[in-house]
Write a structure and sequence with these properties.
Layout (H helix, E strand, L loop, with lengths): L4 E6 L4 E8 L4 E8 L1 H5 L6 H23 L8 E7 L3 H18 L3 E5 H10 L9 E6 L4 E8 L2 E8 L4 H11 L6 H9 L20 E2 L2 H12 L13 H29 L4 E5 L6 H13 L3 E4 L14 H7 L20
Parallel strand pairs: 1-4, 4-5, 6-10, 8-9, 10-11
Antiparallel strand pairs: 1-2, 2-3, 6-7, 7-8
Helix pairs in contact: 2-3, 5-6, 5-7, 6-8, 7-8, 8-9
The structure holds 5'-O-[(R)-(carboxyoxy)(hydroxy)phosphoryl]adenosine (KG4) and zinc ion.
């Protein structure tokens, strides 16, 4: 029997995306319309602008995904859509499109958790079942640790008490005068910098709790770059080299914390497999350090491929797992903007 195909839709934040994926997890097409330019001058995502852009992008993006996959609407056997977490207005655009297609084509609708899909991106490049595993989703909105019992069962075991790691990258980049989204820019300039030039805080690194905090490092970076408020002396000028040194030192501090918490979670939950997903997983220095961990620590590390780190719809392939378990949504399913938190 030939493979079945599904259309997955992602619109949880500021990317409008659609992908066509077959039941062997082959991605036949993956289309992403970014809104970076629209939000750039505000230094972050403006929810109202994001929803409006999703509205104008959603149908062209779905059309293009079908065209690139050389499939028609009539070929689809299921529709999947990220319904949580995210911006309410943004999520609603994707969900409404998905519901309409499910109703008109009379095919199952599968509601997806965006964070779980980020982790599932690791399974998509694995030769064998990766789970059980510890999962870290590190993005602009989240820094979450999960104990993943299977490809569809994820228990939140740790998260940030303030900023997400990607948010710290974005805000720190803004302080350094780098464009939004800042993560890739920090990573770029850090290549020319000395990662030992400045000592930034590694909050909670020795703490037993599986918790993160990235707001302190951002403040510390601000004082290093722009000077302490009320200080008598001006800070040294922000030359290209100083920006590079600050960026490299900042990046190393964030990576140190992420690595330490992954190791701690693996020990605490007696897991020897680690899955890493989300936009910050695209960071080359983080990937290098994870590869060292894989080689030295007896931990098998799988990092989502670069094309599936930042937001995309192809990671909606997780829908096949849910569909196989009969986890189909009713047409009255709603969005769940907030993350269901665990107790710390
Ligand atoms: O997963 P994602 O696309 O969206 C959310 O679900 O949040 O992640 C976006 C985040 C942004 O904060 C961006 O700055 C960060 O991922 N990011 C990076 C890199 N590429 C993207 N952070 C560090 N290094 C990178 N190379
Ligand atoms: Zn994401």
């Amino acid at each position: 029997m030939s493979a079945q195909i599904l259309l997955a839709i992602e619109s949880s934040c500021d990317e409008t995306a659609a992908a066509v994926i077959d039941s062997d997890l082959n991605v036949l097409s993956s289309v992403i319309a970014t809104q970076d330019e629209l939000h750039q001058r505000f230094g972050g995502v403006v929810p109202e602008i994001a929803s409006r852009a999703h509205l104008s992008n959603i149908l062209p993006v779905i059309d293009e995904a079908l065209r690139k996959s050389d499939r028609k609407l009539a070929d689809l056997s299921a529709i999947a859509v990220m319904t949580q977490p995210g911006l309410v207005g943004s999520l609603l655009v994707g969900l409404t499109a998905a519901k309409s297609l499910s109703l008109v084509l009379d095919i199952p609708l599968i509601a997806l958790n965006h964070i779980h899909a980020h982790l599932y991106a690791c399974q998509m490049i694995a030769d064998e079942d990766l789970f059980p595993a510890i999962g870290l989703v590190v993005s602009g909105g989240h820094t979450n640790l999960y104990d993943c019992q299977s490809a569809t069962e994820y228990e939140l075991i740790g998260s940030t008490i303030d900023d997400a790691a990607g948010e710290a990258f974005d805000k720190s980049a803004a302080i350094l005068g780098l464009p939004y989204p800042g993560g890739p820019h920090i990573a770029r300039v850090a290549q020319q910098g000395d990662l030992k030039a400045f000592k930034f805080p590694r909050t909670f690194i020795k703490d037993d709790r599986l918790a993160f905090s990235f707001s302190g490092i951002k403040t510390s970076l601000r004082y290093t770059a722009l000077g302490q408020p009320g200080a008598r002396e001006e800070p040294p000028p922000l030359t290209e080299q100083r920006v590079a040194d600050i960026a490299a030192s900042f990046q190393e501090a964030v990576v140190d914390v992420l690595i330490a918490k992954c190791q701690q979670a693996a020990r605490a939950y007696d897991r020897d497999t680690l899955c890493i997903g989300g936009g910050v997983a695209a960071n080359q220095r983080f990937r290098e350090r994870l590869a060292e961990l894989d080689a030295s620590d007896g931990i098998n590390v799988t990092i989502a491929p670069m094309s599936l780190c930042t937001d995309n719809a192809a990671m909606g392939a997780i829908a096949w797992e849910l569909l196989n378990k009969g986890q189909i949504s009713d047409l009255d399913v709603d969005v769940t903007p907030g993350l269901v938190r665990h107790r710390q």
